[in-house]
Amino acid sequence: MKKSYKVEIDCPNCAAKVENAVNKLDGVTKCTINFMTQKLTLETEAEDQTAIVREIARVGKKIDDDFEVSAK
Predict the structure, then answer these.
(1) Residues whose CB is less than 8 angstroms from the CB of residue 4 and which lie 6 or more positions away in sequence, other chains included
(2) pTM of the model
(3) In this structure, which of 14, 31, 32, 39 has its CB flanked by the most CB atoms within 10 Å?
């Protein structure tokens, strides 16, 4: 399942770090973050991405204190 989320991230370098970390998570097929549009596109095999999104928020906060992810 492919879905987009709104993210709040402060710099392109942090966006790249979060993207790399998320792509290593279990259950994630592909993740891309567009810093300019503040958009995260997540592709998983799971129908319900709630648990994965919570994990993304946790991982993102470790990289950028202001990181947030929410439904579009």
Answers:
(1) 39, 40, 41, 42, 72
(2) 0.92
(3) 31
